[in-house]
Amino acid sequence: MMILYSILILAGLGLVLGLMIAWTAKMFAVEQDPRVEKVLSMLPGANCGGCGFAGCADFAKALAEGRAEVGGCPVSSKEAKGMIASFLGLAVSDSVRKVAVVLCGGSSSLARKAAEYNGISDCRSANLVAGGAKGCRYGCLGLASCARVCPVNAIEILDGLAIVHPELCIGCGKCVKACPRNLIKLVPENAHVHVFCSSRDKGADKKKVCDVPCIGCRKCVKAAGENEMLVEGFLVRTNYEKPPANDLPVRAGCPTNCLQSGFPLAYLKKQGGMPGEKEEKVA
Amino acid sequence: MGKDLLLITVGAILVNNFVLSKILGICPLLGVSKKLDTALGMSGAVIFVLTLATLVTSLFFKFALSPDSALAKATGFNFDFLQTIVFIVVIAGLVQIVEIIMQKKAPKIYSALGIYLPLITTNCAVLGAAVINAKEGRGVIESTIFGFCSAVGFALALVLFSSIREKLELARVPKAFQGTSIALITAGILAMAFMGFAGLVK
Predict the structure, then answer these.
(1) B51 and B149 Cβ atoms separated by less than 8 Å
(2) Rounded CA gap, A191 and A174, in Å?
(3) A75-119 pLDDT, tens per residue?
(4) B13 found inside a domain
(5) Whose CA, among A211, A232, B83, B199, lies 20 to 30 Å from B115?
(6) Chain B partners within 8 Å of A6 (Cβ)
(7) B58-96 as b/e, with b when 16 or more CB fall inside 10 Å?
(8) What are the structural domains, with CATH classification, of chain A?
């Protein structure tokens, strides 16, 4: 008898609760835009936040409500964007895929240190302590603040220098915000020639602390087409609106090897040397 | 009555703190204590669910499961062995219903509590509070206050612990102790600190 009662009580309880849940689910159902889910399935799902929304789901919702543009997603391929746009009946705002690049070539063996830093292993705190260990006050501190925020692990720290691997980079821009020295720039994917230096010091001063600075000799400016390289004080920069051809570093003959295509000198050295490079002088 | 309630309050928050002296609800303590923000969200969800759960389960206990309830008298049987399963079912069902209603009527609170609300449903702290109430034979009001205060105690421990862990992120921890092991040691020291309250309530 007791067993029967127990079974009845539990069965009754389950039935009542089940019915209540079913009823409330029906009564208090929240209508959702059915397009949101469709759009979400077409987004990359990286949840990197590069669009400025809290993950892909939020972005999909904003897209469906017309608060965002399809081009806002830095990760989606062109085809995916086109699909989403035609699904929602929107125009695609065309955007070239952007990748991050660290504009410094001063690895530990190429740039000199001015001090020892023993604090928290993070660029932002190192930068607070008298500007960190590097002799160059513009250079990469190499403590991997950018690498840690990268959602796809596209940043390598090689010999105390942060290097972005553009083939992995999704262009979300988190590292740009993380770098206390503002060395990281988002550049169009098709621009490969970079001046791996951000120092605004005079050429001679730069040479004292670094083997691979831009000394502003303008050899590359002369070798490049009109307006392809821009001079900013003692520093030359690639004009990313109109990037020069990939063979510019070879043609220009940069005396400090600061101008490189794709990767800074420290990385190319690790890859087995590069043509015309002088022998390493460190014994 | 007033003195009893005060004893329950102090006892539940400080002396018999759920996490630090009863070792209930350790999973969220270690799981969601890396950031203060998430710890606060979790605390809110726990306070909400635990108060609600103790209220409803004590009602059930009073009218159906306790040896001198109406049901026991009517049938002549004692159903208190059904306690655990009934409590679990009731708490789970109830939270589900409340969640659905909240999503519709109070979306702000819903999104603030977020994923923690369904997660906490099956937490041992919630069931623990209900079972302790039944064991102590507390009335409905006392049970609810105990549930609320236990949850506040849980929230206190969680917020303290997550603040410490946030600081630990910046500390130089020896390699062997990094991660969960230093968290467990911290929890142990925190629990020992809470032992200082032991004499407050008998």
Answers:
(1) no
(2) 20
(3) 888 788 888 888 887 766 556 778 899 999 988 888 988 888 888
(4) no
(5) B83
(6) 79, 82
(7) bebbbebbbeebebbeeeeeebbebbeebbbbbbbbbbb
(8) 34-88 (1.10.15.40), 98-270 (no CATH)
Q: Give the tens place of pLDDT for each residue, A171-210.
A: 888 899 899 999 999 898 888 899 999 999 888 889 889 9
Nearest to A30 among B86, B93, B104 (CB): B104
Instruction: Give me Rg for the CA atoms of chain B.
Output: 18
What does chain B come to in residues? 202
Distance from CA of A80 to the nearest CA of B (A): 29
Q: What is the ipTM of this complex?
A: 0.75
Task: Answer left, alpha or beta for residue A245, where phi above 0 means left and psi between -120 and 50 means alpha.
Answer: beta
Rounded to whole angstroms, the Cα distance separating B9 from B149 reads: 6
Q: Which residues contact A215 (CB under 8 A, 6 or more apart)?
A: A203, A204, A206, A207, A234, A255, A256, A258
User: Residue B191 carries which side chain, given as an amino acid letter?
Assistant: A
pLDDT of residue A272: 65
Q: Is residue B84 part of a domain?
A: yes
| Whether this model's pTM surpasses 0.90 | no
Q: Which two tokens stand for residue B143?
A: 């049970």
| Residues 6+ away with beta carbon under 8 Å from B12 | B18, B146, B149, B150, B152, B153
In terms of DSSP bridges, do strands A184-188 and A155-158 run parallel, antiparallel, or are they unpaired?
Answer: unpaired
Neighbouring-strand partners of residue A164: A155
CA gap A191, A280 in Å, rounded = 29
Residues of chain A with C-beta less than 8 angstroms from the C-beta of B101: 24, 28
Optimal mutation site among B97, B109, B172, interface A, most CBs of chain A within 10 A: B97
Which residues fall within 8 angstroms of residue B18, CB to CB, at 6 or more apart? B12, B24, B25, B125, B128, B129, B150, B153, B154, B157
How many C-alpha atoms does B40 have within 13 Å on its Cβ side? 5
Q: Which of B78, B24, B87 is nearest to B58 (CA)?
A: B87
CA angle A11, A15, A20 (to 5 degrees): 150
A231: three-class secondary structure by DSSP:
strand
Can you give the residue range of the structural domain that contains B41?
21-197
**Domain-embedded: residue B60:** yes
Domain assignment present for residue B170? The answer is yes
Residue B149 has pLDDT above 90, yes or no: yes
Residues of B near A (Cβ–Cβ under 8 Å) read 64, 75, 77, 79, 82, 85-86, 89-90, 93-94, 96-97, 100-101, 103-105, 107, 170
Nearest residue in chain A measured CA to CA from B95:
A21
Task: Work out how many domains chain B is built from and give that number.
Answer: 1
Please tell me which residue of chain A has the smallest CA distance to B77.
Answer: A2
Closest-CA residue to B21 (of B148, B197, B161): B197
